[in-house]
Amino acid sequence: NSSGVVFWQWVESRQKIIFDGLASALFGLPPETRYMDASTFLNLILEEDRTTFERSIQQAFETLERHATDIRILRRGQIRWVQVRGKVALEDSIQVINGVFLDITERKLIELRLRELNEAQKRFVSDAAHELRAPLTSIQGNLELVRLYPQMPPDEQLGAIGDAEREAARLGRLVADLLTLARGDRGVEMMEDDLKLDEVLQEAWRSALPLGRNHWMELLTLEACRVLGDRDRLKQLTLILLENALKYTPPDGKITLELKCLEGHVEFRVSDNGVGIAETDLERVFERFYRTDEARVRGEDPGGTGLGLSIGKWIAELHGGKVWLERADAGGTVAVVRLPRLELEG
């Protein structure tokens, strides 16, 4: 029997439980174990589930109804879920419960994962609705202002229209980012090409230079590394990190980019000497719509969608790599991307 099913019998008058030969595998018991006293068996069950199991057994004997419950056990340091089913019977004038134990750990893990995904989806929809509402409200308000006050001074009218245009552009970026993440959630496949990563980073750097006119932009050593991946996605990842560094670095601040080929992987870093990041934010910045306190401290709207780093994390993981942030010793932040290195034969 390889299905994880164990047959058992609970003898109420003798306060013991009898197993078949498969109990050892399910409960992590010695192979020769065929029975044990009730108190010893109860100690195999997690304390939080023990009372529920005892109450269910007692109720089954009192009502002669079927016994059914799920319990958790600790086996070799790992929690396993066990479905318990049984029915009261009379054997030699002794009341017993005959039943089965079924290992349902995999099913429980799937259920847990589905619940987590469902909750994440609910939060995402709620956050997206909130983020979409802000630019729409601003656009509506500015257009209504122009309509209700046609005689307002031309410069004020142009200002209102300009605000509406900027919010419309931000709304467009937000929708584009939402669609990108939706494709990622669906498990979209990427292009897999032999890429010279240093060339991809140079392209992204050139694209970012106009955005950094008021900053000191320095391209450090880009070693000749090759990776297997999607050129457009990796360029997008690099731009996300460069734009994020620019966003949180004051004018005249310094932004650098470097790439190194290491054993089995490549690593590139985007560094800045900006406002830095709190230790508590290092992990959370990759959550969707999360913004750090630094954006509020500066008293500015950082202008992003709150999705850039989430997209960057997805791209890195899509390539079998990872991305993380570090606090720079001299202030500022370092974004690190590590990707598998493509080793050329010969």
Explain what you see:
- The structure is a single chain.
- With 346 residues, the chain is α+β, with helices and mostly antiparallel strands.
- The chain has three domains: 5-103, PAS domain (Beta-Lactamase, 2-Layer Sandwich), CATH 3.30.450; 110-185, Signal transduction histidine kinase, dimerisation/phosphotransfer (DHp) domain (Helix Hairpins, Orthogonal Bundle); 193-340, Heat Shock Protein 90 (2-Layer Sandwich), CATH 3.30.565.10.
- Helices cover 43% and strands 27% of the residues.
- It contains nine helices and 13 strands.
- The protein has helices at residues 23-27, 38-42, 47-63, 105-148, 154-185, 197-208, 231-247, 293-297, 308-318, and strands spanning 5-11, 16-19, 35-37, 67-75, 78-91, 94-103, 193-196, 216-222, 226-229, 254-262, 265-272, 322-327, 333-340.
- The strands form three sheets. A six-stranded antiparallel sheet has the order 3-2-1-6-5-4, sandwiched between helices.
- Helix 4 packs antiparallel against helix 5 and helix 6 (197-208) packs across helix 7.
- Residues 294-301 have low confidence and may be disordered.
